[in-house]
Task: inverse folding
């Protein structure tokens, strides 16, 4: 019976030592003094995610404006061509009730 109690006591001591000083005990138990962490150095513009995102957004906006401008020009050209094709008849559905 004495051997069993001694074995349990040894296991208890080992477990307590493991929790106090073993892996994963940072911040628990004894405080360890570590070297100060170096400050992160500034990122170059081509490594900065925020900068790259702004570049992509600016490029997207520029392309969108160009596409809208091109569509507007095509629409105006199409409208001009359609107006030239239509004869101005006084009784046409476009000009109801107009007479010369």
Result:
């Amino acid at each position: 019976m004495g051997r069993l109690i001694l074995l349990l006591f040894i296991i208890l001591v080992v477990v307590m030592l493991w929790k106090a000083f073993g892996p994963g005990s940072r911040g628990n138990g004894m405080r360890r003094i570590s070297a100060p962490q170096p400050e992160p150095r500034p990122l170059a513009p081509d490594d900065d995610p925020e900068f790259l995102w702004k570049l992509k957004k600016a490029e997207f906006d520029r392309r969108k404006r160009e596409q809208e401008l091109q569509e507007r020009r095509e629409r105006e050209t199409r409208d001009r061509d359609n107006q030239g094709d239509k004869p101005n008849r006084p009784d046409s559905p476009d000009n109801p009730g107009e007479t010369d």
In short: The mean pLDDT is 81.
